[in-house]
Amino acid sequence: MSVEPVLSARNLVKRYGRVVAIDNGDFDLYPGEILAVIGDNGAGKSTMIKALSGAVRPDSGTIRLEGRTVSFDHPQEAREAGIETVYQQLALSPALSIADNMFLGRELRRPGFLGKYLRMLDKPAMRKTARDKLSELGLMTIQNIDQAVETLSGGQRQGVAVARAAAFGSKVLILDEPTAALGVKESRRVLDLILEVRSRGLPIVLISHNMPHVFEIADRIHVHRLGRRLCVIDPKNASMSDAVALMTGAVAPTAEMLAA
Fold first, then answer.
1. Where are the domains of the chain?
2. pTM score of the predicted model
3. Distances in Å between the alpha carbon of 165 and those of 31, 42, 143, 158?
4. Which numeric CATH code is attached to 7-95+169-248?
5. Which of 105, 106, 142, 196 is 20 to 30 A off residue 126, Cα-Cα?
C-alpha cells in the first residue's frame, strides 16, 4: 500500500528468559480498516498487541504511530497517545454505574472553584456524555445510564467497554476477543458495533479465534506464527481453511492469498 500506516512496528523482540514471545515481529494497521490478527495459542499475538498498547515493553524494535516513533512504558501512555484497548476481561467495575465506568480514570470535574479546589465531579456532564456516546453507537437497549454494570448482559457490558474505548480512542482501537464469551445474538450486536465504529473512521485491530467473524468484518487478516508475522491475507482471496492451515504451518502463503 502507498498509504502510510496509522500504527506500525518493525523488528519487535520480546523475551521472557529463554522463551522468545516476539521474534522480529512486524505489524501494519492502515487508516479506516479492520485488521484481524489471528494465530495459534502461543504464537505471540497477544504479546505483540500488548507491546503496541503499552502493556509490555519490547526488548528491541520500533513502533510508529502516525509516522512518529513512540515508546510506551505504561498503557496510560498509549491511551494518551490515542490507542485504546478493550481486553477480554473488559476492565469494567461491576458495582459502578455505566456513566462512572465510561469515565473511569477520566472523571470530569465541576468548573470553577468547586472542581479545581474541592475536586467535585461533574456528574451531570458525565451522564450526558455517556448517554450521547452510547446513542451514537446505537446502544439504545441501555435505558438507565445510572444502572450498575453488574446488572447488564454480557453483550451490553461489551458494548459499554467498546463505546468507552471508541469515545476516547482518537487514533486506534484494539479489541481482544470481543465476542469470546457471548451468544450468537449478542455477538451479532458487538460485530455491528465494531462496523459502526469503523464507519466513523477509527481503524480497528481485532484479535479473534472466531473465523466466521474474522472473515465477515475484516478488511485484511494478519497471520501470526512462531512469534512473528507470517503474512497478511485478503479474506476475499483466501478461505477459513486456508487461514487455519497458515496458522498451523500446514501450508505456506501463496501470492493469490496475500493482501495488496
1. 7-95+169-248
2. 0.86
3. 17, 27, 20, 11
4. 3.40.50.300
5. 196
